Amino acid sequence: MASFSSTHCRSYSHSYSYSSSTNGGQNQRFAFSSSFPRLPVPAKAKVFLQSQRNSHQNAVLMQDGAVATKANPVEKETPLKKLKDELLSATSSDEWDEKAGFDINGNESTVSITVVGASGDLAKKKIFPALFALYYEDCLPKHFTIYGYARSKMTDAELRNMVSKTLTCRIDKRENCVEKMDQFLKRCFYHSGQYDSEENFSQLDKKLKEHEDGRVSNRLFYLSIPPNIFIDAVKCASLSASSGNGWTRVIVEKPFGRDSESSAALTKALKQYLDEDQIFRIDHYLGKELVENLSVLRFSNLIFEPLWSRQYIRNVQLIFSEDFGTEGRGGYFDHYGIIRDIMQNHLLQILALFAMETPVSLDAEDIRNEKVKVLRSMRPLQLEDVVIGQYKSHTKGGVTYPAYTDDKTVPKDSLTPTFAAAALFIDNARWDGVPFLMKAGKALHNKRAEIRVQFRHVPGHLYNRNFGTDIDRATNELVIRVQPDEAIYLKINNKVPGLGMRLDRSNLNLHYAARYSKEIPDAYERLLLDAIEGERRLFIRSDELDAAWSLFTPVLKELEEKKIIPEYYPYGSRGPVGAHYLAAKYNVRWGDLGVDQ
Amino acid sequence: MDGRPSAKGINSKEEEVSFDFSDSEEVQSTLSITVVGASGDLAKKKIFPALFALYYEDCLPENFMIFGYARSKLTDEELRNMISGTLTCRIDKRENCEDKMEQFLKRCFYHSGQYNSEENFAELDMKLKEKEGGKLSNRLFYLSIPPNIFVDVVRCASLKASSANGWTRVIVEKPFGRDSESSAELTRSLKQYLTEDQIFRIDHYLGKELVENLSVLRFSNLVFEPLWSRNYIRNVQLIFSEDFGTEGRGGYFDHYGIIRDIMQNHLLQILALFAMETPVSLDAEDIRNEKVKVLRSMRPLQLEDVIVGQYKGHSKGGKTYQGYTDDTTVPNNSLTPTFAAAALFINNARWDGVPFLMKAGKALHTKRAEIRVQFRHVPGNLFKRNFGTDLDKATNELVLRVQPDEAIYLKINNKVPGLGMRLDRSDLNLLYRARYPREIPDAYERLLLDAIAGERRLFIRSDELDAAWSLFTPLLKDLEDKKIAPELYPYGSRGPVGAHYLAAKYNVRWGDLSGEES
């Protein structure tokens, strides 16, 4: 088995990989190295630039095939291009040799990343560490600047201090981490301002201009702030701190409204100041390694696609659980609840990716078109297909875990669900009648996110006759464990070795930790990089968002209007039993709560 | 699922006759197992250990005895010594092994006699009767002797030592002739003395755990059967290799060669199990009917679809390995193949056009037996558009490793974790050692138990044998008539390169020699 030792960053992979398929495809070895100028580059290893938009570049390595790369398609305003401007001229040559890449320096470009809400939790825990990881991996363009923006008064040094203290990223143990960190921190600055002050944003603009130093300026704003100030910040940033000659993009995170209307209003408001192209709605689940791999599994293996339909799949389960509650920070959550917080976005996005038809290509628009089709083929969720729960306090081993309503930031009479299970259906030719079950909850017995595909029973099962047991229950199951401890496994029936004829279920296993020694990058790294490159595949388009809301809005309204009382479940338990009854209604058995999970 | 593995677990009508069930206690039955050729290698290394393992596992009926029969003069005690001296079975390290062994040895006896002497067998019969003590008597003869005396022994045993009131069964091992004619002749001779029901032709590969599991995989999992046809399978490879040569015992082998020794029986049997249609039930006759259908749908092998090889001497690291013809028991001018590769085709609706490649050889670089199923390319592979590489080469592959180190794995294309989009092949793995801590029983245990239970699923029926021979006989004759010279390959190598050219002819790439293989 091959091993991959060096770092791979999309932005540069085109320049590092080369083909070594001269030995007839056997014993394929490849070398990726950041010292590429010294690498022998076969003449045929060329890099192609196409003028197509929105496509990304890839390098593929097949162990018994050749290595090839195709760089992509750079859209006019991507920083990737600017980034390459160090390598080639800005004139859009269609094709060039790698060697050509070094002797040019046209209009250099810069990227400034402004983290709005820099003192917040997400910024500290995810965004800055992800940016540093990208920097460490050489994935950021040469000229970049990072600005923290928030209301608190802070100096640059204080921000740097804060960033360096909370940087607990996957890079920590690598060599040169400290040096790299110093260099990185030198690029970090802070600007204090109000979120609704155009004046403060103009000041920021000035500072940014200084750093950009006349180069082409690309600006990425990451809104790590509460939703009620999204619009203010977007307005100010757009009016007073947009790039004059490059692109300006804004990353927003959920919540995107709390129902169809408020979401539409938000979109409308954003679009007063931004084009659809400029809005990057992040769903960080789409950046998870195994969610990314879902399409690879389906579309690059022969053996899965024939099975991927109602003909063979009995049901699909999308499961998310956390083993902690709101822990004193329930204020935001209480306003939304688990359905909006997890199901309507993360789980539904995964469902759409799972169930979509084969797209025309892997381009963002093609994939998002297929996802929208799935969402639009779905029945809006019915109240009777939903079970909601809320955790109550529980004492175990002397420790008392608080109930949801014990959280001081949560109203005592809150009916907000902290758990929900739902059955959804896609009324199209591929999935008619196949239940897609979702389950999400806080304060459960474990922390996990996984996709489970349960296959139908074997028709005319030969072994049934010999056993009398109901082996129809022991169907095949494909499990994609997104977190923790990434893995893919297929449960198969197997003969227990020995003289008798006994069957049991075994796993055909792929355990990432065992197979891939490299750490898996955080979802935010991938998503930030994509946003910088203008790759929109993993971001939510507004029509996707609309379709997603229209599936959930009626049921959310009904839950609230009818004041449906959640089923209580103890903190740390497996959730309300109602979820089992919901599953039973559709003849499904939850895969994660079986004895042999 | 079912309870403990035991003779009772393998149900069959005969069971009721051969075992005393608590609800039918009228007559107690006895079982005597006579190992004819008791002093031979197979008996010592495989049969006695397997019998002991069955005894240890409580799989033998209550009243059983074991008789060794051979020409050498031995006492019971000497036989017991021989057995206990060579018993290196999987049970060795379990508790009570010694106690059990003593009890087992007490049930072992020896009778010396000629293989063609009816008189000697009559003496054996008397001894057996004595021990049976008037109980219902079932007798199993295991012929662990050279093929030229099969018929003599069967005649004597059948005429003089058959059970009067129970069943009499005879287990025979390959070779079953060396071509269609001699095989038919052997069958005809055996049938003078035995009915088809009494003949248990063993192919010990069918007793291997993963070969047994092949049907389970196919028929108890939804995910495989839809893929099991020409629509999705590009080719199937059946690979057998040994990492040693004849090592001074080539006399028998030279008369047969690798094709007869491995391909025509072991590999072909696995192929038939792999490719058969779903049987009506798991009963022996239903399965064997389906296997025969596969064999009869196959094209007889053509000379141009076969590569033969023979190993030559090779020095490596100061050590010299002998060539095949250096073996003193082998003629110096022998053309007998020690390696062969062949492409076979099944002309039925399911498999039309799918090459089934076989490869078997001695003195190669590894010791292994495996089945490899290579799937077709992904039609309209999306990732190809972005990559430009020939992803078609990186197809899915299902590997069943029969030995050593039993495993099942499925090669899939996967995204390499990281920020880029790179694909590689990973395995969905099931390594038996990791999943099942229990030792896996030897194939002979299973087969002996089946013969005792009258379960014929894993034994070869005569029409299967005929069909198997008619596929190979024309080719074997051709090879011998035309004195086709084998391609020589060094001892310990990967075999003659001709195998690659044969594969290339059918657009196949051997899965075991692809470089990524471990």
UniProtKB/TrEMBL annotation, chain A:
Localization terms from the record: Plastid, Chloroplast stroma
One CC-aspect GO term: chloroplast stroma
Residues of the Glucose-6-phosphate dehydrogenase C-terminal domain: 296-590
Segment forming the signal sequence: none
EC number in record: 1.1.1.49
Keyword annotations: Carbohydrate metabolism, Glucose metabolism, NADP, Oxidoreductase
SUPFAM superfamilies in the record: Glyceraldehyde-3-phosphate dehydrogenase-like, C-terminal domain, NAD(P)-binding Rossmann-fold domains
One matching Pfam family: G6PD_C
EC class (word): oxidoreductase
Domain Glucose-6-phosphate dehydrogenase NAD-binding: 115-293
Pathway terms, separated by semicolons: Carbohydrate degradation; pentose phosphate pathway; D-ribulose 5-phosphate from D-glucose 6-phosphate (oxidative stage): step 1/3
Reactions listed under catalytic activity: D-glucose 6-phosphate + NADP(+) = 6-phospho-D-glucono-1,5-lactone + NADPH + H(+)
Protein's GO biological process: glucose metabolic process; pentose-phosphate shunt, oxidative branch
Main location: plastid
Entry's family note: Belongs to the glucose-6-phosphate dehydrogenase family.
Function: Catalyzes the rate-limiting step of the oxidative pentose-phosphate pathway, which represents a route for the dissimilation of carbohydrates besides glycolysis. The main function of this enzyme is to provide reducing power (NADPH) and pentose phosphates for fatty acid and nucleic acid synthesis which are involved in membrane synthesis and cell division.
Name assigned to this protein: Glucose-6-phosphate 1-dehydrogenase
Organism encoding this protein: Corchorus capsularis (Jute)
From TrEMBL, chain B:
An individual GO BP term: pentose-phosphate shunt, oxidative branch
Reaction equation(s) it catalyzes: D-glucose 6-phosphate + NADP(+) = 6-phospho-D-glucono-1,5-lactone + NADPH + H(+)
One GO molecular-function entry: glucose-6-phosphate dehydrogenase activity
Record-annotated Glucose-6-phosphate dehydrogenase C-terminal domain positions: 216-510
Keyword Signal: no
GO cellular component terms given for this protein: chloroplast stroma
Domain Glucose-6-phosphate dehydrogenase NAD-binding: residue ranges: 35-213
Keywords: Carbohydrate metabolism, Glucose metabolism, NADP, Oxidoreductase
Compartments (UniProt record): Plastid, Chloroplast stroma
Primary site of residence: plastid
Gene3D superfamilies: Dihydrodipicolinate Reductase, domain 2 (3.30.360.10), NAD(P)-binding Rossmann-like Domain (3.40.50.720)
Pathway participation: Carbohydrate degradation; pentose phosphate pathway; D-ribulose 5-phosphate from D-glucose 6-phosphate (oxidative stage): step 1/3
Keyword Amino-acid biosynthesis appears in the UniProt entry: no
EC assignment: 1.1.1.49
Region (Disordered): 1-21
Compositionally biased residues, Basic and acidic residues: 1-16
Family as reported in the entry's similarity comment: Belongs to the glucose-6-phosphate dehydrogenase family.
Job of this protein: Catalyzes the rate-limiting step of the oxidative pentose-phosphate pathway, which represents a route for the dissimilation of carbohydrates besides glycolysis. The main function of this enzyme is to provide reducing power (NADPH) and pentose phosphates for fatty acid and nucleic acid synthesis which are involved in membrane synthesis and cell division.
UniProt-recorded name of the protein: Glucose-6-phosphate 1-dehydrogenase
Source organism (scientific name): Corchorus capsularis
